[in-house]
Amino acid sequence: MSDVLKKYLTADRSTRIQALRLTQSWQTGLAHQDLPPALVGLLGELTAASALLASNIKFDGSVVLQLQGNGPVRLIMVECTSALDLRATAHLREGATLPPGAGLQDMLNPDDQGRFTVMLDPSGRQAGATAYQGIVPLEGDTVAAVLEHYMKHSEQLDTRLWLAADGHACAGLLLQRMPGESTPAGAAEQTGGSNETWAHCTTLADTLKREELRTTDTDTLIRRLFWEDDLLVFPEQAVRWHCPCSRERVAGMLRTLGRPEIDSILAEQGHVHIACNFCGQPYDFDAVDCAALFADDSGSLQAPGSDSLH
Q1: pLDDT of residue 276
Q2: Which GO terms describe its cellular component (predicted)?
């Protein structure tokens, strides 16, 4: 497993520590998305954060994080399932360019109308039922600051995040104070110890540099930061890129357009080109491929090529 998320708990069980560094899955996700480096960085940070948060949900489903505004970047969206299958996308407005040194607010929120959305979507949700959705103003100069603000005010959880990304890797470290379970008699003492542990861990993590987080493997990073601490170690979890688009699904969509429409596209362009609106994966159908879509009069789909999830 080349990309894994690792979890730890402090000895007093008051602070959760999670870390990951993604390379293979991240580069797979970027393979068909042509984005400016600054936007790659933002998308990567949100991707790392989504996996860190999704690993803690208590249901079978997914976490969707979305940054949206009226700047040159209209949308950044990441989805990660409870099994840590993730996908991510970002979209510039048509003709938009990013100014040199543009930050999150410059890209998404020049008019202070930007918003951050968190959606928790159970996989067994019945038709007509709505997923949980929280929407807050887009506050903070970094993805980490936006998420920390949301967790503090919407989830009432003390959470700190350190995130970094480029075209090669995206990485993140999460610290979260665990909900208190102390009895009234020992509440003051336990709270005092919890506060000390929280302050100790955040002070150590604040020494992290972005380049160090992005380039250092997780085991080395945790040893470097918490070498004096006894940590409870949990089984690591594999993280992978997964977009459910496939050649078969695209073929099914083309078939619903009908033969006259497909023939019209072939006459004009010589082939039918479709790219997944989420991950950018391209699919091409030539005249022979398109003919095969309608070859079975019984109505069953005859899709050429392999059905390859990516």
Answers
A1: 77
A2: cytoplasm
Q: How far apart are CA 310 and CA 307, in angstroms?
A: 10
- Separation of alpha carbons 291 and 251, rounded Å: 11
Pairwise CA distance, residues 250 & 44, whole Å = 27
Q: Where are the alpha helices (DSSP H) in 95-186?
A: 104-108, 143-154
Distance CA 185, CA 79 (A): 43
Q: Tokens 């840590």 correspond to what residue?
A: 84
**Measured distance CA(95)–CA(290) in Å, rounded:** 33
Q: Is-contact 240 3, C-beta < 8 A?
A: yes
pLDDT, tens digit, for every residue of 27-45?
999 988 889 999 999 999 9
Residues β-bridged to residue 119:
64, 133
Which letter, b or e, does each residue of 101-133 get, where b requires 16 or more Cβ atoms within 10 Å of its Cβ? ebebbbbbbeeeebebbbbbbeeeeeeeeeeee
- pLDDT > 70? residue 273: yes
- Amino acid code (one letter) for 94: E
Distances (CA, A) of 218 to 16, 40, 187, 305: 15, 21, 34, 39
CA 247 to chain centre: 24
What token pair was written down for 167?
A: 């075209």
**Counting every residue, how long is the chain?**
310
40-62 confidence digits (pLDDT tens): 999 999 999 999 999 998 888 99
pLDDT at 305: 39
Instruction: Please tell me the pTM assigned to this model.
Output: 0.82
Helices (H) and strands (E) in the chain, counts: 10, 14
pLDDT at 307: 39
Cα–Cα distance measured from residue 237 to residue 225, given in angstroms and rounded to the nearest whole number? 21
